[in-house]
C-alpha cells in the first residue's frame, strides 16, 4: 500500500526550517539567499533518501509536494524580509518619533544612500561588477547574467525591472 | 525501494499545467490591454493554469477516480509551481539590484554612483523606486501621505512593521532591505 507521504513531507519541511534557522546563524558571513536555498535542496535530498529506505511505500509526488509547497512559501517570505524596500520603509517609520517622516528624508537616507550603496556592494562582492577609478563596470560574469536577464525580459515583454 | 513514482492522471495534469506557466505568460504578455501590468499578467497566467487543470481533469475519466490525496497533491504542486515562477517573475519585473545591473549593461561604459542613480530604469532615476514602493504602501493603507509627510498607520502599517521586526530576529538577519 502506498502511504500519501503528506506527514513525511511536512516533517521534512519542519526539519528544513530548523536547519535553515541554524545555518543562517552559523554561516552568517555567506550570502543568506544561497544558504537558505542550498539548505532546502540538501534537506529535500535527505528527505527523499530517508523515504527510499522506509518499509512502507511512500508516494514521491505527495511527499515532494508537501515539502516544496511550504518550503517555497518560506523562501518567498525570506526573500521579502531580506530584500524588501517597502518593508524596510515601514520599519524605519516605526522607529521615528510620531511614526512619521518627510518624503525627501526617506528618499535621501534610505533609497538613495543605504539601500542603493548596499546593492552596489552586493554587485562587487558577487563578482558581477568591478569598481574602477571612473566608476562601476560589469565584469564578464555580470555581462553574461545581465544579457540572459535582458533576453528573458524581452521574451516576456518586461520593459524594466526595479 | 519504498518510494512510489507512479502518477495518477490529475497529478500528471497538475505538473503539466504548472510547468506551462511560462507558456501562458508568453501569450498573456502580448495582450495590448495588459501591457506593463506585470502583477496582473502573472495572476492571469495562474488562473489559466487552474482552468487548464480543471478542464483536463473534467474532460477525461480521471474525475471519477479523483481521490482526496490526488486533489491535495495536485493543488500543492500547482501552488509550488506558482511560487517558484513568482520568485523569478518578481525578480525580473521588480528586482532593484537587477535594475542597477541592467542600467550598467545598457550604459556599456563605467558609471559613477551619481550617473548610475540618474540613469536607473531608463533615466527615471532612483526616486522612481521610492515613488513606486510608496504608492504600493499607500494603496495597502500601510502609510498615508500628508503633504510632504509620510505617516505610518497603526493598522496595518505598524502591525506589519512589528511582524517584520520579529521575523528579522527569528531569521537572525542583521541587515535587510
How do the strands and helices of this protein lay out in sequence?
The complex is a heterodimer of chains A (162) and B (177).
Chain A: E1 2-3, H1 6-26, H2 32-52, E2 57-59, H3 60-83, H4 85-94, E3 100-102, H5 103-125, E4 129-132, E5 135-138, H6 140-155
Parallel strand pairs in A: 1-2
Antiparallel strand pairs in A: 4-5
Chain B: E1 3-4, H1 9-19, H2 21-28, H3 38-59, H4 68-94, H5 96-107, H6 113-123, H7 127-139, E2 143-146, E3 149-152, H8 154-171
Antiparallel strand pairs in B: 2-3
Report on this structure:
The complex is a heterodimer of chains A (162) and B (177). Chain A has 162 residues and is mainly α. Chain A folds into three domains: 2-83, no CATH class; 84-125, no CATH class; 129-162, no CATH class. Helix content of chain A is 71%, strand content 10%. Chain A has six helices and five strands; from the N terminus they run E-H-H-E-H-H-E-H-E-E-H. Chain A has helices spanning 6-26, 32-52, 60-83, 85-94, 103-125, 140-155, and strands at 2-3, 57-59, 100-102, 129-132, 135-138. In chain A, the strands form two sheets. A two-stranded parallel ribbon of chain A has the order 1-2. Chain A has a two-stranded antiparallel sheet with strand order 4-5. In chain A, a hairpin with a 2-residue loop joins strand 4 and strand 5. In chain A, helix 1 packs antiparallel against helix 2 (32-52), helix 1 packs parallel to helix 3 (60-83) and helix 2 (32-52) runs antiparallel to helix 3. Chain A is extended. Chain A starts with a strand and ends in a 7-residue tail after the last helix. By secondary structure, chain B is mainly α. Chain B has a domain at 9-94. Chain B is built from eight helices and three strands. Chain B has helices at 9-19, 21-28, 38-59, 68-94, 96-107, 113-123, 127-139, 154-171; strands spanning 3-4, 143-146, 149-152. Chain B has a two-stranded antiparallel sheet. In chain B, a hairpin with a 2-residue loop joins strand 2 (143-146) and strand 3 (149-152). Chain B is extended. At the A-B interface, helix 1, helix 2, strand 2, helix 3 and helix 4 of A face strand 1, helix 2, helix 4, helix 5 and helix 6 of B.
